[in-house]
Design goal:
mainly beta; Double Stranded RNA Binding Domain; 4-stranded mixed beta sheet; single chain; two-stranded antiparallel ribbon
């Protein structure tokens, strides 16, 4: 199993479904695709493979940096461009609940 036959996937990591924050979504990730299906160990029943590159996940600040890394090492790659979703988050302060002349309803 050679590294050249293994394709890398370059993508922007999506927002976590478990939290509302968007931390770590600006980075681009280079991850290797698995070479084959996992096999089940007959003794323990665990699944695994001898492919250690499938465990590698590298982070880059930009798409160009990830592509340059793959090209410099001769790694074939596929780029999955995902649109960046900007949230309209208005910063609020606790003191705004007691501001004079506020027009919104009380939050509690």
């Amino acid at each position: 199993m050679s590294r050249e036959s293994q394709t890398a996937r370059i993508y922007r990591q999506p927002k976590s479904a478990m939290q509302s924050g968007r931390a770590r979504t600006a980075d681009w990730v280079l991850a290797f695709a698995p070479l084959g299906p996992k096999r089940i160990d007959p003794l323990m029943g665990w699944s695994g493979s001898g492919d250690t590159n499938a465990q590698v996940s590298l982070r880059f600040p930009s798409q160009e940096a990830a592509i340059a890394y793959a090209q410099a090492r001769g790694i074939p790659y596929d780029v999955e461009a995902t649109p960046v979703v900007k949230a309209d988050i208005k910063p609020k302060a606790y003191a705004d609940n007691f501001r004079f002349g506020r027009t919104e309803n009380w939050s509690h």
